[in-house]
Amino acid sequence: MTALPxxxxxxxxxxxxxxxxxxxxxxxxxxxFLVGAYAFxxxxxxxxxxxxxxxxxxxxxxxxxxxxxIELINFAHGDMFMMGxxxxxxxxxxxxxxxxxxxxxxxLAPLLVAAFFVSMIVMGAIGVTIExxxxxxxxxxxxxxxxxxxIGVSFILQNIVMLKYGPFQTNSPKIFPSFDxxxxxxxxxALSVFIIVVALSMMVALQLFISRTRLGRAMRSxxxxxxxxxxxxxxxxxxxxxxxxxxxxxxxxxxxxxGLQYGVSRFDDGFQAGLKAFxxxxxxxxxxxxxxxxxxxxxxxxxxxATVMGFSRxxxxxxxxxxxxxxxFRPSGLLGQQLGERA
Amino acid sequence: MTAPNTxxxxxxxxxxxxxxxxxxxxxxxxxDIEVPRGEIVTLIGANGAGKTTTLRTISGLIHPREGxxxxxxxxxxxxxxxxxxxxxxxxxxxxxxxxxRLTIYENLLMGGFTRTKAENLEQVEHVYGLFPRLRERASQxxxxxxxxxxxxxxxxxxxxxxxxxxxxxxxxxxxxxxxVQQIFGIIREINSRGMTILLVEQNALQALSIANRGxxxxxxxxxxxxxxxxxxxxxxxxxxxxxxx
Lengths: 343, 245
Prior knowledge:
The complex is a heterodimer of chains A (343) and B (245).
Chain A: H1 21-41, H2 43-70, H3 77-95, H4 105-135, H5 144-165, E1 170-171, E2 180-183, E3 186-189, H6 190-212, H7 214-224, H8 226-231, H9 236-262, E4 264-265, H10 269-284, H11 289-308, H12 315-329
Antiparallel strand pairs in A: 1-4, 2-3
Helix pairs in contact in A: 1-2, 2-6, 2-9, 2-10, 2-11, 3-4, 3-5, 3-9, 3-10, 4-9, 6-7, 6-9, 7-9, 10-11, 10-12, 11-12
Chain B: E1 11-22, E2 25-36, E3 40-45, H1 51-58, E4 66-71, E5 74-75, H2 81-87, E6 89-92, H3 104-111, H4 117-130, H5 132-136, H6 147-160, E7 165-169, H7 177-192, E8 196-201, H8 204-210, E9 213-218, E10 221-227, H9 228-233, H10 235-240
Parallel strand pairs in B: 3-8, 3-9, 6-7, 7-8
Antiparallel strand pairs in B: 1-2, 1-4, 4-5, 9-10
Helix pairs in contact in B: 3-6, 4-6
């Protein structure tokens, strides 16, 4: 009998490919896809797809990280995104009393930084608290128990927000001025560029954190084998808490971005967005952070692509259709599992 | 090290009346074990006798419900597993449990998780000295190693923690006889450089041949203990574990 963890065979589901061909395909396939999408959608919609994709990707990272480390599908995560949007609108609109766009960059920049900072910190703290109160006591329980708890937490979060803000849409101050960056004949909203840059930087930072730092190593080893990680001196309780902290903070950031982009939030915004972000995580290969980001962008493109073709109402159906097809041919998702596999 | 007030001989690890449970199962029923510094002590016994549970209790993966575990004279029975790594317990667990997606080198660095970079660079050389094979394959993924090499990695990784006592759980399990010889040779070598070792084995003959003393476990209790020589000559041990009649 070998001591190899059972799931290391997950790679066996992949189509075998020549070693020299594979890295090339990894570059060529996305490049062809992006060029095709650009030609088909035009620059404005292309950027629109990237913007949406960035929001989904930020949320999907939280799903995938938490799943990677404790195998929990945290159904409350979409609501963390929604709460992040409300924290942001409360901070900018109600505490600072802002309403419209701010054109003075010297004022805008610190306000944006503050909004992200506040929302990410508050949501991070809420995420850690939820883990401590709702999920940690169930760590040894059958997997269904924390799953149902997560659904319960989702209801609690939604109802807290509904009690405070009512069942209708609340305005979120669009402090980012709406002007376009003109490139040739294309007009790209500056806000979209801002959102994409912010989201991508956070993803790169996360990737560096996971791959380069001591805590990142602790996370990967805890995901791979909790007992073995403890025997290396990893404090798994702290590591799991940090995973929730980061996931929730990213959801908070996505909430801020969402408010800037759409200008309104409602208590049940997290449901749809969470479902799609979860789909993104599964599509990319749950447990894999790069996969989650990739999945988020793919879903952004599918949705916007459907709209361009005049099927905007079919967007979700197409998204889930693609998910089904991918899972039939690659059950472990596009990039399989990377945070670590279980022994 | 100054000896703690009560201990006469230098005992690294001392279990007194340890009771551990797996859920409702009473797995350890009052175990007493002493591991003197610099020795190899072995726990032998059949499947389900409680050998692995004993090691898991020592390294803090489970906590005893009753009794005490002392490391260098200090009670550690309630200390968390990750803190015990710093305190001096290195555990190469049953089934090796290496990180199959990490390279050999990264696996070893995980072993040095609680140590400084400088300490690790030095200790990695020490481990490579014991297991030259690991140096050759340093950049290979752990999962690509053979069973014997994985065992070497598991032991090397535990050594990276710079333990006071090294717990080895069935290092010979599933290995070809020639590899078993090799692994036992290395265990003896590690011990000859001063490492205290608590060795769990089903291969009683091999274990007793390198250990200073041994404990025979049966259904969660120590039924016999003594020097390796005494145990090897014991009627019951010969019948039950050495396959003689």
